[in-house]
Amino acid sequence: MIRVPHQDWLxxxxxxxxxxxxxxxxxxxxxxxxTGHRAGQHVDIRLTADDGYQAERSYSIASPAxxxxxxxxxxxxxxxxxxxxxxxxxxxxxxKIELRGPIGGYFAWQAQNPSPxxxxxxxxxxxxxxxxxxxxxxxxxxxxxxxxxxxxxVESIIYREELDSxxxxxDGFSLTHTLTRGAPxxxxxxxxxxxxxxxxxxxxxxxxxxxxxxCGPSSFVETVADQLVALGYRESTIxxxxxxxxxxxx
Length: 250
What we know:
- This protein is α/β, with parallel strands linked by helices and about 250 residues long.
- The protein has helices spanning about 85-90, 125-140, 160-170, 195-200, 220-230; strands spanning about 10-20, 25-30, 40-50, 55-60, 70-75, 95-105, 115-120, 145-150, 175-180, 210-215, 240-245.
- About 40% of the residues are buried.
């Protein structure tokens, strides 16, 4: 069982990096005193400048749930941001930062829940949903799961190869991509923003009463949640998490 964590700042040491796209990097941290997390939770990161100025941002945990003391954060670089450029361009193996968490219980998936899982992501909103999918795979769960993932271009799809691999397992997980800024020749996914008609085709049926997690930019999340309700999904089954123009979680 994962203990309820204290909320003191912990020391996290960068141990590995993996580029997901040109602007997105996954960072592995070894965290002293980490007690574990649930799929969908996030952490606060605090950076302190030499003059004492501090900046904090929240980032979803990408790694599967559990008690391992190494976690992964997937960070999208926002060029005018205070934190993400440092994390994605300047942080090196062995560097230490301050981290607090895990945080959040509302937007978290309990693997023992037998209900089907409907995940809808916009851009880097896929990160906490990937933690859920990785947890499902790690535990060998075969409960039906479906991801509808909206990206701008094929080059901006985060975790593309891993998602394709998960879908190829044929263990009850299915994947649909949609691109909003053009598609390459031979593209077999959707090519527009997520709308009511797309949800009607690709979402798990409301009659199955799936657990629903929606994450992405605020406007994306609000539109998707409203359309799901209009299609007959119970509002109480729809959990949302959103971020603003800076990429900061809300």
